[in-house]
Amino acid sequence: MRVCPICDGEIKREEKKVTYRYKEHTRDIVQSGEYCTQCHEGFLSPKDLKISQKSISDFRREIDNLLTTDENGGANSNYFKKLNLNGIARKL
Ligand SMILES: [Zn+2]
């Protein structure tokens, strides 16, 4: 059993849903890591962070694309189609 360095509580490996906000859009991202059962402090390994960072950067890229598609006059058409498949572009 691992012990929390902050409160001596028990640390367990968990997957937590974290709501990430970017430019008034939100998305739930799964952040796996080790969390203290007492104080809920998270201890994330570089690998855990790498996975969630990828979700976050994908999300940001999608939002940036949604927001800039009009200005680019179809320059992102390939990406736009991809978004459509995901059902995200319907919000436009
Ligand atoms: Zn703790």
Strand order of the largest sheet: 1-2-3-4
Gyration radius from CA atoms, angstroms: 18 Å
CATH topology tier name: Ubiquitin-like (UB roll)
| Helical amount | 40-55%
How many beta-strand runs? 4
| Gap from first CA to last CA | 49 Å
> What are the distinct ligands in this entry?
zinc ion
CATH class: Alpha Beta
* Order of secondary-structure elements: EEEEHH
User: How much beta, percentage-wise?
Assistant: 25-35%
Largest sheet: 4 strands, antiparallel
Question: Can you tell me the CATH architecture?
Answer: Roll
The mean pLDDT is: 83
Low-confidence region ranges = none
- The shape is elongated
Describe this structure in words.
The protein has 92 residues and is α+β, with helices and mostly antiparallel strands. It has one domain: Roll (Ubiquitin-like (UB roll)), CATH 3.10.20. Helices cover 40% and strands 32% of the residues. The protein has 2 helices and 4 strands. Strands 1-2-3-4 form a 4-stranded antiparallel sheet. Helix 1 crosses helix 2. It is elongated. The N and C termini lie far apart (49 Å). The structure holds zinc ion. Zinc ion (ZN) binds next to loops. The site of zinc ion has 8 residues, from loops.
Quick description:
With 92 residues, the protein is an alpha+beta fold. It has two helices and four strands.
Topology:
Elements: E1 2-3, E2 10-22, E3 25-36, E4 42-43, H1 46-72, H2 77-86
Antiparallel strand pairs: 1-2, 2-3, 3-4
Helix pairs in contact: 1-2
The structure holds zinc ion.
